Structure to design on (222 residues):
């Protein structure tokens, strides 16, 4: 057992929520934007959970397990290019950095969405929050900046999703690793028993999840 249940539920819930966000954001429309905002709140809550879980979760879920230096990346990548990747219990060094970049991009996207507005019928829940002068900008300038970042960030998220799907395919076809099934069952073959996790911390996951949901509700109702 490598991936704990709370982490696996987070992964699949985030995949669904981000897919809805992208679909509704691209298609627009009044009805679609209602779903866009709701799924965006879900993404924000999931990210808050993941930030906490990266600190208190099992060892392979922690951020310290995702950060590796250039040497570690090369030591994994060189044999991987010859279809002989070293066995890894958690994410490989290259994937660890990709996950951090993706989480950061999603956090920026979710945060700017709270302030985004089309000045017609769709506003983020915190559109009213910035004071007349904020960070050296007027309120309108700040809202326009947040909206522009949110709209342009959509392309970045699409690219990251595409790279993620390509990496899954490359692992399956080229490296012969079944990452999808591992993220469903939580188990990976070829991993020494001592490298696995002894506890999935399900109760702690429920507590952290409830706290993340409560914090999200508080933020969008400021």
């Amino acid at each position: 057992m490598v991936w704990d249940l709370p982490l696996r539920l987070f992964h699949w819930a985030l995949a669904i929520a981000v897919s809805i966000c992208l679909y509704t954001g691209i298609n627009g429309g009044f009805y679609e934007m209602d779903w866009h905002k709701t799924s965006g709140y879900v993404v924000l809550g999931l990210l808050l959970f993941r930030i906490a879980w990266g600190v208190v979760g099992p060892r392979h879920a922690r951020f310290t397990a995702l950060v590796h230096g250039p040497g570690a990346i090369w030591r994994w990548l060189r044999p991987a290019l010859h279809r002989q990747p070293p066995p890894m219990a958690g994410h490989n060094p290259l994937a660890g950095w990709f996950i951090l970049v993706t989480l950061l991009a999603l956090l920026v996207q979710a945060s700017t969405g709270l302030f985004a507005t089309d000045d017609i019928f769709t506003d983020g829940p915190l559109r009213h929050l910035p004071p007349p002068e904020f960070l050296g900008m007027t309120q309108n300038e700040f809202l326009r900046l947040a909206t522009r970042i949110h709209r342009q960030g959509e392309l970045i998220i699409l690219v990251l999703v595409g790279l993620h799907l390509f990496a899954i395919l490359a692992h399956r076809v080229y490296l012969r690793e079944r990452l999808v099934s591992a993220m469903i069952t939580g188990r990976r073959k070829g991993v020494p028993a001592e490298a696995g996790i002894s506890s999935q911390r399900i109760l702690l996951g429920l507590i952290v999840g409830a706290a993340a949901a409560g914090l999200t509700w508080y933020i969008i109702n400021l």
The chain has a mean pLDDT of 93. The radius of gyration is 19 Å. The chain has one domain: 5-220. Strands lie at 133-134, 137-138.
